[in-house]
Specification:
Blueprint lengths: L2 H8 L3 H8 L7 H13 L6 H5 L8 E6 L4 H15 L5 E6 L5 H12 L4 E4 L3 H7 L7 E4 L11 E6 L1 H14 L5 E4 L8 H15 L6 H4 E2 L5 H14 L5 E4 L2 H13 L9 E6 L12 E5 L1 H16 L8 E4 L1 E4 L10
Length: 337
């Protein structure tokens, strides 16, 4: 028998069972009594790993960052640090490759350090579906939605990526562009890029603009070099495009450099739009028109949601949508005729 068996037999979550076994006080009397009756009935003895789960009230909150080149995450992490430091909370930050399984990493970290809570920055939902049930502590996923999942200890804070993507592509279309390429991310339904791509395609469909995903979309990782290479592949295959929508600012910056190196004048020969609103977007030449996510609210809502979950005996998962704005730049103009 293990902790998951006790959870199933008692009717409570793994997180609640873990709190009872570790002597936490933020558990209702009825939950405590029911769980302990199951423990006593089956003579359950916590194994070595369970004993390691005995919590120190000052164990650091973990922040697991998916992707090392995401400058939006850098802004969010700074605010998380400042917010938690102000209330005396320690923070442990781990940076993962964007293809790494963040939930498996969280499981290893739980066994080694037993954080009281975890903030995920970015995430692949398929990994959460497969492995998150083994994580006991409260968690918040920032920038991706968990509404399709059913874990009681997992909340989310995010921008409405699908609608924001619709809004930014609408800016391109209003300028008169009819042939639009898209670079960045991939087609995995569990990642943010799928929702951004969906919003862009929906916008074009509303304006009766055709979009062939096999010719007008080029995937890439979230980095400037990857954006550079993706634009080169896209323009070689589809040279008639007049505008490019990048699914992240760092991708756009690399793609814009590639366009210039390919002989295009920006924005006269090629318009660009993007997503995130990092500081660097305002210093590009031309300044980048982009969706600005509110990194301050994403961080603050993420922290406040996690702290509330940590202090509640039976927390309920929440989904908080942070508003976005279109940050106007100089990178979209009417196409040449």
């Amino acid at each position: 028998m293990n902790i998951k068996d006790i959870a199933n037999l008692s009717g409570y979550s793994v997180a609640t069972v873990s709190r009872v076994l570790n002597g936490h006080t933020n558990v209702s009397a009825s939950a405590h009594d029911k769980i302990m009756s199951v423990v006593n009935q089956y003579n359950f003895e916590p194994n070595a790993n369970a004993r390691e789960l005995k919590r120190n009230e000052k164990d650091p909150i973990a922040v697991i960052v998916k992707g090392r080149n995401n400058l939006l995450f850098a802004d969010i992490i700074e605010i998380i640090h400042t917010t938690l430091d102000a209330i005396g909370e320690e923070v442990y930050v781990a940076y993962l490759d964007e293809d790494e399984n963040e939930v498996r990493f969280a499981l290893r970290h739980q066994m080694a350090s037993n954080p009281r809570g975890i903030l995920f920055l970015g995430g692949e939902l398929e990994y959460f579906k497969q492995h998150f049930g083994m994580i006991a502590c409260p968690c918040v996923l920032i920038t991706n939605s968990t509404t399709s999942l059913s874990f009681p200890n997992l909340s989310c804070v995010l921008t409405n990526d699908e609608q924001a993507s619709f809004d930014i592509v609408n800016e391109i279309i209003k300028a008169g562009h009819q042939s639009i390429g898209i670079v960045g991310g991939n087609l995995s339904q569990g990642q943010i890029s799928a929702r951004r791509l969906s919003g862009a395609i929906r916008c074009m469909a509303c304006h009766n603009i055709g979009f062939n995903i096999h010719t007008h979309y080029e995937p890439s990782r979230y980095s400037m070099q990857e954006g550079y290479d993706a634009f080169k592949r896209l323009i070689a295959r589809t040279p008639d495009i007049t505008a490019v929508y990048a699914l992240g600012d760092v991708i756009a910056i690399g793609a814009m450099r590639a366009a210039i190196d390919s002989g295009y004048s920006l924005p006269c020969d090629m318009s660009f739009a993007s997503f995130d609103g990092i500081q660097g977007a305002r210093f590009c030449v031309p300044r980048l028109t982009t969706v600005r996510q509110d990194s301050t609210l994403l961080a603050q809502y993420g922290v406040s949601t996690l702290l509330k979950m940590m202090s509640t005996a039976e927390p309920l998962p929440v989904c908080c949508i942070v508003p976005h704005v279109i940050q106007q730049g100089e990178s979209i103009i009417k196409p040449r005729t």
